[in-house]
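Example 88.
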Amino acid sequence: MDDSHTLPSHDCPACGTRLDAATSICEGTPAPRPGDVTICIDCTAVMMFAEDLTVRLVKPGEIRDRDALRDIRRAQRAIRRAQEERPS
Ligand SMILES: [Zn+2]
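Predicted structure in complex with zinc ion:
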């Protein structure tokens, strides 16, 4: 099952990586909506979708939900692990 969603093309505000799709960490999650949190696949910056589904960096302390923070840290670890395992 492919949970990848195509997005308007834009650059990561932290590292400049071109972002044009999002993959949900939860199977069967609907397409991203404004206000949803996303993580850059390259630098693992935490970002939030705007109304037009481009992204902006999340401000420190903006996300207070403990479960959300735990999910974000888990996703960041998974991305970094995948980067380490990727042959260079
Ligand atoms: Zn980035």
